[in-house]
Structure formats: structure tokens, C-alpha cells
Write a structure and sequence with these properties.
The chain has no helices and 11 strands. It has 120 residues and is mainly beta. The strands form 2 sheets. Strands 2, 4, 5, 6, 9, 10 and 11 form a 7-stranded mixed β-sheet that branches.
């Protein structure tokens, strides 16, 4: 029903910036909350940032003030602008989307993940 394609990951030095992008495609009635999660080696997957259909946002305390989440409802994309990156930000970043199908069922979809590596 929904496919998510992530891009923008890579290697960056501490203090640098990256912008992640996630594009949703397929058949659905609407996109509800969209967000980014990350998982570092040996750690649980954690929420980074979310944004609702009305553009209300929520951020993890560790990224507040450094990361900004955006969505474009026309293009069906959600982006994560990451500034002042730290080595602790190194992780695989996953896009997560809750979509309402034409059958009025809410489903959660995950991207395959994109690697972000911050060197010191």
C-alpha cells in the first residue's frame, strides 16, 4: 500500500550537517504522523522527531535545537535537517509513516533505513 524511499545519509564530520529525505508512494487516503527514528549498534531504536499532518512536531531531548523535521503534503515527503552533528548521532535512521488506506484503516510503514556516520 505504501512504499518509503529514504535518501541523504552518509559520512560527515562532527559539527557538520546532513538532510535526510523520505518519499512515500502507493495508494492511500492520507498520511498522518510521519517521523524519523534511529538505531545505533547495541541500542534500542529510538524516536528522533515526528510531525503530524497539521505540522505539530515533537523531538527527542538529545536532538532538540539541532534537528528540524519538515513535511510536504503535496509531494508526500518528510525531511530531517540535522545540524551540529555529534558522534553520538551515528546510527541507522529509519523513516516511519502512519497512513490511512482507502479502506479507512491506519497502518504503520517503515523505510529500510539509511546510515548516518559522524566522525570525530
Amino acid at each position: 500500500q505504501v512504499q518509503l524511499v529514504e535518501s541523504g545519509g552518509g559520512l560527515v564530520q562532527a559539527g557538520g550537517s546532513l538532510r535526510l529525505s523520505c518519499a512515500a508512494s502507493g495508494r492511500f487516503l492520507r498520511l498522518n504522523v510521519m517521523g524519523w527514528y534511529r538505531q545505533a549498534p547495541g541500542k534500542q531504536r529510538e524516536l528522533v522527531a515526528t510531525i503530524t499532518s497539521s505540522s505539530s512536531t515533537d523531538y527527542a531531548a538529545s536532538v532538540t535545537g539541532r534537528f528540524t523535521i519538515y513535511r510536504d503534503n503535496a509531494k508526500k515527503t518528510v525531511d530531517l535537517q540535522m545540524n551540529s552533528l555529534k558522534p553520538d548521532d551515528t546510527a541507522v535512521y529509519y523513516c516511519k509513516v502512519v497512513a490511512t488506506t482507502y479502506g479507512f484503516v491506519n497502518n504503520t510503514y517503515w523505510g529500510q533505513g539509511t546510515q548516518v556516520t559522524v566522525s570525530s
